């Protein structure tokens, strides 16, 4: 591969559109502005920097294969409780439709790009040496266009276009 990179466009996939994965580059028509770049320090799991998460002494990894935002079980339980989330018999998280407008706002910052998302917290207790690690899934990534550049161990984040390809 001449350009050792791949990119993901997940925006609008839940509204009848579809996402794209591009091997060997990226498509400038699928994002707005220029990507903000972050250096990966754990390439195997796309983990960025030390202690990127201000709520916990934790790193953060992006994962297009995860739907939710995964964090320590203690913090996930606290945020879910504050949002009125209940657990059903199958240990699934539920929130009443009449409470959706009351959910607390939640914003993450990816290399300078602030992204808000709807509810989607799940607990993890990842053991050392990887823990404490937040795993950033599609609930946030669908608002971003992400580029993984393997030649410089970095990832770029840009606001995804609302074009719905």
UniProtKB/TrEMBL annotation:
One of its GO terms (biological process) is proteolysis. Residues 1-158 form the Peptidase A1 domain. Gene3D superfamilies: Acid Proteases. InterPro entries: Aspartic_peptidase_A1, PEPTIDASE_A1, Peptidase_aspartic_dom_sf. Keywords: Hydrolase, Protease. The keyword Metal-binding does not apply. The keyword Secreted does not apply. One of its GO terms (molecular function) is aspartic-type endopeptidase activity. It comes from the Eukaryota. Belongs to the peptidase A1 family. This is Acid protease. It comes from Coemansia reversa (strain ATCC 12441 / NRRL 1564). The lineage of its organism: Eukaryota, Fungi, Fungi incertae sedis, Zoopagomycota, Kickxellomycotina.
